[in-house]
Amino acid sequence: xxxxxxxxxxxxxxxxxxxxxxxxxxxxxxxxxxxxxxxxxxxxxxxxxxxxxxxxxxxxxxxxxxxxxxxxxxxxxxxxxxxxxxxxxxxxxxxxxxxxxxxxxxxxxxxxxxxxxxxxxxxxxxxxxxxxxxxxxxxxxxxxxxxxxxxxxxxxxxxxxxxxxxxxxxxxxxxxxxxxxxxxxxxxxxxxxxxxxxxxxxxxxxxxxxxxxxxxxxxxxxxxxxxxxxxxxxxxxxxxxxxx
Length: 244
Hints:
- With 244 residues, this protein is mainly alpha-helical.
- The chain has helices at 6-14, 18-24, 58-64, 66-100, 107-160, 190-201, and strands spanning 45-46, 51-56, 165-168.
- The chain has one domain (6-154, 162-201).
- It has a three-stranded mixed sheet with strand order 1-2-3.
């Protein structure tokens, strides 16, 4: 997923001066030092100017935070009844399509069934689109709220650890869809920022059934985007109505 507002929020946060964060002082959660040691190879230095560059997967940080996992899970449960309703409509359409090809179905009955399928399918497609738009809007509201609070932590971490630039390596920003071709794990600051955000937010880690592995910020966020809609049957019925 790519949030349209990510770039604007990150840019706004980056414009905040280090003096503003100095005034905040001890109000922010303590942030650990940047990964790597003085003996590590200079992987975090790029360009002739020697600018220290870091990377953060903003999308993963949002979904992987305790608050993100809690709120997106709640949204998924909230949207489940609508998803079940759309799935039932889709199943009804598939049942009508099977009647079209059933032995003994008259031409007149096939014509009626075809019209029913077309009408129900158009209605379902419209409802799915509306449900998707509503779900995306609610997802974006959650993500925007979290990122507005997380952005100052990202900038503070960069300032405290001497980074001259932080790049977003969210999935849709990876090459060829974005400028990031590759980055080493030593540059990634996602986990320490999320750890600091979890401390600041005070939201506990979500509980999971016994035996369920927790997600890893290094691979895939433990919070997942809620499944919001059922894909409609978009193929038109194969049987054409009888000529009038």
